[in-house]
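Lab channel / #folding
Pinned by the channel admin:
"Please post every new chain as: sequence first, then the structure tokens as a reply. Keep commentary short and put observations after the output so the thread stays searchable."

First post following the new format, from NK:
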Amino acid sequence: MQPRAQARAAFAATILLTTMITGVAPVAAAAQSQTVDRTVVTGTIDMGSKTYSVPGGTIDVSATAVLSQPIRETLTYDDGNLRQGRSMDVTRTVATNGAGSFKVVWTGSGLFGPFTTTATVPCTIGFTSAVVVCNATSASIRLLGSIPVPLTPIIDVELQASVSVAQGFSAQPSIKTVTLAGGVPGLHRDAPMPGTQAYDVPCSAAVGDTLAVDETDFGYGIDVTSTNGPAILVGTWLAIPIPPFVIESPFVTTTPIPADAFVTQALRDATSKVVTFGAIKANNVPPVADAGPAPYSGNEGSPIHFDGSASSALCGPPTLRWDFSDGGVAFGATPFHTFTDNSMFSGQLTVTDTTGLSSTTNFSVDVANVDPGVTAGPDTTAAWERPVQFNGSATDPGTADQSTLTFTWEFGDGSPSASGGSSVIHRYSTPGDYDARLTVTDKDGGSSSDTRTVHVRRRTVSIGYLGETAGTYDTKGSLSGSLVDEFGSPVNGRTVTFSVSGGSAGSGVTNSSGIAITAYTPLLDAGSHVTIVAFNGAGDALYESGSGSGSMAIARKASQVTYTGALKGGPNKTVSLSATLVDATGKPLGGRTIAFQLGNQSATATTNANGVASTTLKLTQKNGQYALTATWTPPGPDDAAHYTGSAASTTFSLQAK
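Reply from TO:
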């Protein structure tokens, strides 16, 4: 197998942290270096084994080897970076530190019994790309013929071994684990060996603690090609005539095929080597305070989003505190804050890292005024000249403006506006639909309006019949009624119409007391009649229509018959009979029939326009005194329903001259 120039680096380090007590601040840092001397040793290299033939039998030979090399590791660093939150680079260089060695141990067995022998030769393995070949040869071992007897055989063995080392140090990564006191893990790094490795100092490390590296396992890889085999020398004891009487004959060397083995080995030193770098210093890099895209802007009463997420800290994550000029405080990278009023506000962001260092930055916030939200209230309906309650409300997003709000009502009827607050009372004089507007203004001049519709209606009315409940046919009387609105107020100056049993009975105009009166002469049949009093509001701007009813008992009108004719006469003579018929008020009743009865004689006559009925009667009775009557009996159906009958009685004297 051909040698291969391949190397592997392996290094494990454990950071030890020991506490140092000091009252003096660390001085300014400077470049430092330390050296660590080691001897790296391979494991046991198996160089193979083989059986060889020799005169008279066989021998078995095997070999193992160990390579060792002193080295010196130099660590260079700047302890100014041995500080909380910082990373200190440690650069390692490795070089040989004197000659190394190649030690071989051979063991044998076989026909001539067991044997062991060793050989150690210098063998320096450097850190170059050259291949190093190291050879070792044992002392000669006599396996046979140790007693000189003439003509007896001699067998000697010289054991030979060789290693070819592909050496040098390649930049193979190895994992470095940093652990501080208290079990706080540091960062894991991949770094070449030799090369530069960064040790991260956690921000949680205590100031004054000592940072140390315990290199408990150091090594790198080599490729080893080894050969191993004996040189067998065969000879004979020869007899000679002089002392010592025997000599060794010339040797014949038999060199068998050598063993050949390729192995990858690690030169390793497991000895603990502690390197102390010094005391950990306090973090001196303050955090960066970044208040974000200032100036901020927003509206009063609405949350404004702040963004300090661009703030950073070497020892973080940092804590963020926001102080606002309105007295508010917020925490965190992206808080919200609500301003109760409009203005140009200022603020300060304070960023503090885990070691207590802090930085601040200022910012501004332009907060705009927002108009108040206004509600004028629901639409409503009311009668004219009745109090209408207006209950508006308003909310200003900026609570600082709430107490400053002014309320102005415009009622839509041309009346002066009212500024009495959110609740006012107004009366509308004329029915109609009105849009009442409420305007609310804050101290900064921001205003909003809302309207409500007020439907102003006409008033309803109540009408009561107040007139006479009894009357007489064709006799003057009166009808009256009361007109008041729904609130009991008299309705003045309105025409009220009357009807009796469906017939028009006249009209009247209400006075200031709401009373309307009209003269009425009943011309209806005697009996009970319904009276209706009504107001027609169809054309009235203020009042609805209404009506009421009552009753009237109409009596027949009395009549009076007065006899005005002759009171005496002679037998077989013709006399004049007459009478007048008037009603109770003296009104002549014309066209009515008067019946005259004189004794057993009768006659009739019809009244004229003056109520006078006249006729003649020829007397056919004997002399004497006779009853004389004039009677009017109202005929049906009209007069009987309108008048009462009447009669006049007297004595008529019938005698001769």
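NK: Residues 285 and 314 are 7 Å apart (CA to CA).
TO: also worth noting, The chain has a mean pLDDT of 85.
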